[in-house]
Amino acid sequence: PIERLYAPEDVAGIDYDRQVGNPGEFPYVRGIHPSGYRGKLWTMRQFAGFGTPEETNQRYKDLIAAGGTGLSVAFDLPTLMGRDPDHPLSLGEVGKCGVSIVSLKDMERLFEGIPLNDPAITTSMTINSPAPMIFAMYLVVAEQHGADLKKISGTIQNDILKEFIAQKEYIFPPRQSMRLITDIFAFCSREVPKWNTISVSGYHIREAGSTSLQELAFTLRDGLEYVQYGVDAGLDVDEFVPRLSFFFNSHSDFFEEIAKYRAARKLWAEAMKHRFGAKNPRSWQVRFHNQTAGVSLTGQEPYN
């Protein structure tokens, strides 16, 4: 028989409260919610972006009809690099690995007929260096739909440090890039308080060849740097840190991945509480999105 919860009497030789603890309790080794996904199922998103806003819009409507509980926007490379489609360096890349979004009109077409004022609709946008501009367009469209910006929710990736480390899609130098991010922290804490202002991403670091340990180390270090920059910009830790989210890679070594997530929760909780003096328990909690490793997939399956 499998017990619903294993407690101190079930293990020996460890400091239970410090090393493990109960689910939903500091340092959250066993999860940030006491009942895990039994209390609320995770959000299911299909990362999607086709060449044109119209094609992508139809895909989103199909996904919602099929039971999807969130939207996830994949942008093409020129959009990710902040370039117009007619820029010489955009040649051959427009609409290739995602949707091309250049203007507010494009964003309106992307979400036409999708009620952004519905609390059930949450949108994740995988965009980094041009994140402030793309996010501003989204907020305008949400207002056009009659949405209250205080109530809408979603995520922008907005993680420039992992771009410098692993993916190399960036426009502005490091310090200017970090200024844009802390400006978003400040703006959202006042105007869009339910929005996840960043998705600190280990996924791309792992895809670039790191081990699980290196993925965790780089990602948490990036997260700590964002918090430090926010504090240095004069923000209160408990005003902006609760809306930081994380993004980890899931490989096929089952127990190694579990250990990685448990370590992430513990390290982050202790750093927020003891290094930064955060008082809000939500600041202590690592909330993370998880995605299957692209590098773990079969390269070619001609008969499938």
What does this structure look like?
By secondary structure, this protein is an alpha/beta fold. It is 41% helix and 11% strand. The chain has twelve helices and eight strands. It has a five-stranded parallel sheet with strand order 1-2-3-4-5, with helices on one face. A three-stranded parallel sheet has the order 6-7-8. α2 runs parallel beside α4 and α9 packs parallel to α11. It is globular. It starts with 15 loop residues before the first helix and ends in a 12-residue tail after the last strand. The mean pLDDT is 94.
Q: Whole-number radius of gyration? A: 20 Å
Q: How much strand content do the residues show?
A: 5-15%
- Provide the helix percentage: 40-55%
Estimate the mean pLDDT confidence.
Answer: 94
- Are there runs of 5+ residues with pLDDT below 50, and where? none
Structural class: alpha/beta
Number of strands: 8
Topology readout:
Blueprint: H1 16-19, E1 45-48, H2 53-65, E2 70-73, H3 77-80, H4 104-110, E3 123-125, H5 131-144, E4 154-156, H6 160-167, H7 174-191, E5 195-196, E6 198-201, H8 203-207, H9 212-232, H10 237-240, E7 244-250, H11 254-275, H12 281-284, E8 288-292
Parallel strand pairs: 1-2, 2-3, 3-4, 4-5, 6-7, 7-8
Helix pairs in contact: 2-4, 9-11
